[in-house]
Design brief:
Blueprint: E1 2-14, H1 18-29, E2 34-37, E3 52-54, H2 57-60, E4 68-72, E5 74-78, E6 84-88, E7 94-97, H3 99-111, E8 116-118, E9 121-128, E10 133-139, E11 143-154, H4 161-165, E12 173-183, E13 190-193, E14 203-208, E15 213-220, H5 224-235, E16 249-255, E17 262-263, E18 266-268, H6 284-304, H7 309-338, H8 342-354, H9 357-364, H10 371-380, H11 382-392
Parallel strand pairs: 1-2, 1-11, 2-8, 5-13, 11-18
Antiparallel strand pairs: 3-7, 4-7, 5-6, 9-10, 10-11, 12-15, 12-16, 13-14, 14-15, 17-18
Helix pairs in contact: 1-3, 1-6, 6-7, 9-10, 10-11
């Protein structure tokens, strides 16, 4: 195979998802020479994602709203026995985005600054020495190119082969996602479905993305294929016959707190570092939060001329300060809820309908930050009180 050598860059970002792209955008705005390497042929292609983000994400990270399909103000939560809690917020609390356009809009902001996002470039190896980091990427299986930079940011989502080569940490626990688009006709609002048979340890959803088209999906601890089949049988039986199983997408979602997210001349961010909400499996927001933190650390590295592991340790301290509590508490609550039987979930449903919990959620809930509300709910909801004492004594 032919090997080409590229010029030296300040920063190489591996992976053009929201985490890598946003880091590249910030560093580019600060004048650094950034190269983004992406293994797919195009940014935003073939993504498995419901595309739900909190309403604040666009202003917080100065992102374009052009990808927004709908705003979510109301949601129906459907219990295992098909009882419904209907929740309506005074304002939209989340947005449904077209994920391809979401990622592409960040990419466009970068490319407008003449930064190259090189697609069809799967990074296969990384070598770090005293003066630089070398990155080898394969292009269409035909050519291998060697790229060099001062520092590399690994933002490869749920792909961990580079982590293993560099002895970095990576998530050890995963949920399993399944999703397809269905033509259901007009649907009033986003739905969330609970039940051990359709989403063991997590939940399923219906998200309207057009006048007739919806995304139907789930995350589960096990058997995503079986859960998806049962979800359709139970909630959309008239679509069972026409369901094209080849169009159901499956993808894991990282879960739990990860360490060793930095090394000599290397930082890991986004889902590649487990920056995912352990309650809902949402990874876009935490990935963006950590891309800002990583960018700050990289910029300080350039000021000091220091990319040693000791200096970059600041990165993990900072992101853990921001996310550790969320990831830990969310993980424990979700694991605990996974053990509840459908009967116990029904009891919690009744309790929520009758006891002032909904006003509490309305007043104290936040789409992206869940731990404070969870701690409050643990005080109020009988089953969860046991969990509160476990978390406090941990
Ligand atoms: C069914 C399902 C539904 C979801 N719904 C939501 C949701 O509604 N809201 C939400 O916030 N999150 C959701 N998520 C999670 C969310 O999609 C991810 O957490 C998010 O995309 C992570 O962003 P990232 O930039 O860290 O990684 P990614 O978006 O995965 O981007 C990583 C990029 O790296 C590239 N790459 C990988 N390896 C290499 C390599 N060696 N060389 C070059 N490039 C490489 C990949 O091709 C990819 O483009 C969902 C996930 C699933 C499975």
């Amino acid at each position: 195979m032919r090997e080409k050598e590229d010029t030296m860059h300040d920063v190489i970002v591996v992976g053009a998802g929201p985490s890598g792209l946003n880091a590249a955008k910030i560093l580019t705005e600060k004048g650094l020479d950034v190269l983004v390497l992406e293994k797919k042929s195009e940014v935003g292609k073939h993504i498995t994602c419901a595309g739900i983000v909190g309403g604040e994400v666009f202003s917080e990270f100065q992102l374009s709203e052009e990808s927004v399909l709908k705003k979510i103000r109301e949601i129906k939560i459907v219990s295992p026995d098909s009882n419904i809690i209907y929740y309506k917020h005074p304002d939209p609390f989340a947005y449904i985005v077209d994920r391809e356009r979401f990622d592409k809009s960040i990419a466009r902001d970068i490319e407008e600054r003449k930064v190259k996002i090189q697609c069809d470039s799967k990074v296969e190896n990384i070598h770090v020495d005293n003066d630089s980091v070398q990155v080898w990427a394969g292009t269409n299986g035909k050519q291998r190119t060697k790229f060099t930079a001062q520092i590399v940011l690994i933002a490869t989502g749920v792909n961990y082969s580079l982590h293993k080569k560099l002895d970095l940490g990576y998530p050890k626990d995963f949920l399993h996602g399944a999703q397809a688009e269905l033509d259901l006709g007009p649907v009033d609002c986003t739905h969330m479905f609970l039940g051990k048979d359709i989403a063991a340890g997590a939940f399923a959803w219906l998200v309207p993305i057009g006048p007739k088209i919806v995304k139907v999906g789930l995350i589960t601890e096990s058997d995503p294929e079986g859960c998806f089949q049962r979800l359709i049988e139970k909630h959309f039986p008239s679509h069972l016959q026409n369901l094209d199983r080849t169009r159901v997408q499956f993808k894991p979602i990282a879960q739990g707190l990860t360490s060793k997210t930095y090394g000599e001349r290397v930082l890991v961010l986004g889902e590649a570092a487990g920056h995912v909400k352990t309650t809902t499996g949402g990874g876009i927001y935490f990935g963006l939060v950590c891309s800002e933190i990583a960018s700050g650390v990289v910029l300080r590295g350039f000021e000091k001329g220091d990319f040693t592991k000791n200096s970059l340790a600041e990165y993990e301290k900072l992101w853990k300060k921001s996310l550790q509590k969320e990831i830990r508490i969310g993980y424990k609550v979700r694991k605990f809820c996974a053990k509840l039987s459908d009967r116990q979930i029904e009891k919690i449903f009744k309790f929520i309908q009758s006891d002032g919990i909904i006003p509490l959620v309305q007043e104290r809930g936040d789409f992206d930050w869940h731990s404070d509300l969870l701690l409050l709910l643990m005080k109020r909801i009988p089953f969860l009180q046991i969990l509160k004492s476990q978390i406090v004594n941990d």
